[in-house]
Every structure is written in C-alpha cells, then in structure tokens.
Amino acid sequence: MKFSDFVSGKAIRADLRSTDKVSVINELVESLLSAGEIGASDKEDIVKAILKREELGSTGIGRGIAVPHTKHPSVNKLIGTVGVSTNGVEFESLDGEKVQLFFLLVSPPDRPGDHLRALENISRQLRDETFCRFLKQSKTSDDILQLLNEADSSQFGS
Amino acid sequence: MSATVHRTVIVSNEQGLHMRPADLLVRAAARFQCQIEIEKDGHSVDCRSIMGILTLGAVQGVSLKLSATGADAEEALKCIAELFATGFNESDTEVA
Q1: Which of A17, A28, A69, A136 satisfies CB 3.0 to 4.6 Å to A105 for a cystine?
Q2: What is the dihedral of CA B64, B83, A48, A93, to 10 degrees?
Q3: How far apart are the C-alpha atoms of A50 and A92, rounded to whole Å?
Q4: Could you tell me the pTM of the whole model?
C-alpha cells in the first residue's frame, strides 16, 4: 500500500496549532472534514472513538511519531491524514518524547488487512531517518505531499 | 555463547499484528534478557521495536518464525508464543 492510497492530500496539515492530545486529534479529524472525507455529523463520534483507542495505550510509537486511529462505520474505505507540529505535542508516547509527526487513520470496521498494510507502509517508510526528518521540517502541506509521493516511488531507503 | 532457540507461530487473531499486539510483544520481550527476532518471508525484525514489528504487516493466518538468543531464550519464546496462541486476548468487537 502507498501513501497515496489512503492519505487525503487536501487534509494534510503542516502547521498544527494544538499542543495537547485531545486538541490535536480534534484538529486532525477536522482536517478530514474540511477535505470532505468524513461527514460533519460523524466528526465528534470519530474523535471520541480515537480517544477511546488512545486509552488502551498511546499510539505514540516513539521517535516523535504517532498513529492515532479507529475503525468507524461511516467510512467505506481507509482514509488518513498527515499532520506536522513544529513544537511537538505531549502524547504519552512509548518513549516519552513529544510527537511532531501524526498519521491519523480511519478505517471501515470490516477491513483489518487494509489497516495493517497502512501501518506497514507508515512504519517502513518512517524507518528512513532522512524521510522522517524532512517530514518534520516541512513548512507547507505541498512539501509533505511531495515527500509522500517521493516515498511512494521509493526514493527513500528500502 | 548461548544457542539460538526457534519457534514458529501463527497469527490467530482476526485483526492481525496491529499496533496493540505489537505493543504487547515489545512489552513481553522487555521482560527478558535474550535477543528476540521475528521473521516473516525472510524479513527479520527486533521484537523490542514496535515500528519493526509493524513493518511485518502480518495479517491473520500468517506464519512467523521466532528466534531467541540468550540465557532465558526458551522461557521468552514460550511467553511470546502464548501471546500469539491466545490471539493477544482480543475480542472481535474491540476497537483496533
């Protein structure tokens, strides 16, 4: 699976303003709403479901990266957005570090394989330090989109 | 030099090796001294790295090879294999 298969280009945010977990999840889900990927009436429920998942254990997997996610019946295909925070967000990460790089995923309840393939792609690409650093330094959503496209065409690492 | 112990496990839970099971594996591995690797189709990752485990993209039914090297290797693999066997205690209705 490639980034372009699930990342909504219009939802990408290079300038996240939030400084805490609840706000940043709201901000990222709001970006999916603005991009027309989710319905206005589903937004609150999706935010709630993502926060409920975080209660089971933070999706901050270390190295300044978090992958908040949930299943939700309102989507019929896996959708996601990418957000970058210059100053980092306190996210109760596994390594205690603030999170600068967010990949938020919403998947249909009956497609566990797609969710796994998205996680596989994200984790494989982000193992490349250069890619990770460039993403964190991105100043515009176009910068991020371009980096994701480059990663999709295997211009970083393995 | 301790011998390396091997064991093959099957991903039995419906959701596959997503983030929460990966987290459980990392936490389990951290309780042992030995080095533990998980391999799928020749791609081997450290069981202490959540990002590494996620790169396996292991869906339900996939077979994985576990290897452990160190004094408590047998015990560690028994514990890790138990997690796979019990499907990471996931119910189908649980959120991912």
Answers
A1: A69
A2: -80
A3: 15
A4: 0.92
Stretch B25-34: mean pLDDT: 97
Distance CA A20, CA B53 (A): 27
Which residues of B are less than 8 Å from A59 in CB distance? Answer: 19
CA A43, CA A49: separation in Å to the nearest integer? Answer: 10
Q: Do B23 and B50 touch, CB atoms closer than 8 A?
A: yes
**Degrees (nearest 5) of the Cα angle B33, B30, B58?**
115
- Best of A51, A106, A119 to substitute, by most chain B Cβ atoms within 10 angstroms, is A119
Collapsing DSSP to helix, strand or coil, A33 comes out as helix
Q: Which amino acid is at A86?
A: T
A76-132 pLDDT tens trace: 999 999 999 999 999 999 999 999 999 999 999 999 999 999 999 999 999 999 999
Residue A110 corresponds to which tokens in the numbers above?
């009956």
Q: Tell me the three state secondary structure of residue A158.
A: coil
The answer to whether the beta carbons of residues A103 and A115 sit under 8 Å apart is no
Q: Which one of the listed residues B7, B12, B16, B18 is annotated catalytic?
A: B18
pLDDT for B33-82, tens place per residue?
999 999 999 999 999 999 999 999 999 999 999 999 999 999 999 999 99
Three-state SS sequence of A41-102:
HHHHHHHHHHHHHHHCCCCEEECCEECCEEECCCCCCCEEEEEEEEEEEECCCCCCCCEEEE
